[in-house]
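The protein record now logged underneath.
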Amino acid sequence: MIDKTLEILVRRFGFEPDKIKIEAVRIGAFLTGVKLSGQAYGIASTHANKASAWQYGRREFGPFTPANIVGQTVRELFFGDNHSQFRDSLKVAVLNALSSSVMTSEHYHLFENKDPFDFLDISGQRKVTVVGAFRSYIRRLKESGAPFQVLELNPDALSPEDRHYFVPAAEAGRVLAESDIVIITGSTMANRSLDGLLELIPENSTVVLTGPTSSFIPDLLFEKKADIVGATRVTDGEKMMQVVAEGGAGYHLFRYCAQKVVVLRVTS
């Protein structure tokens, strides 16, 4: 989905990846930020697995390794022969940077300063599954009284009082098949698990993708069952880069340098 989204940006909006360069990168513990030529900024979750990112016994100094990223083009990032542990996070941040200029009401059914939760109908006994330990969504679902569960790899990602909502990620097939509403973290794009998750969700379920990582154009997401996308619009690029570099998480962005944007799939 990552590479196909770039193809859509090129075909539909005329971006020229061989002419767009990476001017600055910040890779923090939770977020990855990028600045492209033309003053476009993008952000994504940092996805790094030390055990698989680098081959043990091999030292990497090629393109898209430390001290070699700035100055590279978008085309080199997506199509070059490179082996960076942060490559997919950087790719999604670049997609979000490119998308920032075209994610407007001119092209999409878009609402500013809204959260996807504002557009969900959780009345009755609709079953909700949250993929990832979204604390803000867990809190709002608890307040609503709706039945829900949290699909997660690590039970410790939930607070002790919320751990009874935990369902192991290995049970994704069963849980998602029974869900009326599924809320997925955008970081599943960076770790390449999103396609597999979407395949497990019934056609009649309402699917939400949300978080800073999901700020790229939603064309493919809407083709693959997503109904609501919660994106993040960077309002102060340099402040965003500072927040990322200083270990900031998503909620820091909305305090200092970003706003929430919701994009809805238009049904005929």
In short: The domain at 2-99 is CATH 3.30.390 (Enolase-like; domain 1). DSSP finds eleven helices and eleven strands in the chain.
